Amino acid sequence: MIRVLTNDGLQKGAINKLTSLGFEVVNNHYDKDELGTALKEFDILVIRSATKVTADILDKAQGGKLKLIIRAGVGIDNIDVPYATQKGVVVKNTPNASSESVAELVIGHMFALARFIAISNCTMRDGQWNKKKYEGIELGGKTLGIVGMGRIGKALAKKAEALGMKVVYNDIFGKQDELSYEFLELDDLLKSSDFISLHVPYDKEKGSLIGKAQFDIMKDGVYLINCARGKVVEEAALLEALNNGKVAGAGIDVFEEEPTKNEALVNHPKVSVTPHIGAATKEAQERIGEEVVTTISNFVTNNLVAI
Ligand code: MLT
Questions:
Q1: Are 238 and 215 in contact (CB under 8 A)?
Q2: Quick count: other Cβ atoms within 10 Å of Cβ 226?
Q3: Which end of the chain is more exposed for a tag (fewer CB within 10 A), N or C?
Q4: What are the pLDDT digits (tens) for 218-255?
Q5: What DSSP character marks residue 209?
Q6: What does the pLDDT look like over 67-102, one tens digit per residue?
Q7: pTM, whole model, 2 decimals?
Q8: Are residues 142 and 178 in the same domain?
Q9: What residues pair up with 68 in beta bridges, in sequence order?
Q10: Do residue 69 and residue 136 come from a single domain?
């Protein structure tokens, strides 16, 4: 029997489906000291963001059954992919499932900042009535710069356009001819956007994408949303930009360290925060579960002999 370990849990329907297809699913969490050895007994590992699959863990799993790791989510930065590949372990993710959910969260943060919804929730609970202070802005008519025009960027662009925003974008692969939105070089996008939303992975080699130099060229009073990866933005530079007024508001779902200990950022009055919940919707988790089942089924069909 093919054994699947779901180390960070998996949507119940997906577990039931895998079981009905004849897989043995073990829904258990092994911590980093136990995982490598435990993996010797599993063909397939499914993880979310909590489990880090390091070279050390892969070394400990050496000589076992492990053939496939699935990241139930988009980002695969918690897996040492080159090392896994070198060891003959295939790594897959579920890139299609959570785009709409992440895009909706970005829109939520934009409204929360533009209309002081996030801070009103804090100050009203504190007995304050800041009606005059909280004169906001409309999203309609503003320019949204999307950095990273993949699936999430495109889902966001559609929603933003429907709200009457002008969408411009930058992407590492350049202009996409099928898109009607304006393509801009990154610096031009940073200079001309009222709202900027980041949808790129963190590049370990290049480091953060947004630091002091990038904040310096942004419009005064810009809004920045990061629902991608924490390290894409230098938190110290962001705090400085919030404090000196360059940034009017920041919507932050992801942090340099998670769970974050950056109280200055979390408690900042111009910040709307969420605890890395971009994909945390019923719909996204269901789609992730379905994508995991399909990926496993296809993998097993295509590698019948090997497994
Ligand atoms: C992802 O990479 O899929 C998202 O950041 C969601 C998550 O990791 O929980």
A1: yes
A2: 27
A3: N
A4: 999 999 999 999 999 999 999 999 999 999 999 999 99
A5: S
A6: 999 999 999 999 999 999 999 999 999 999 999 999
A7: 0.95
A8: yes
A9: 44, 90
A10: no
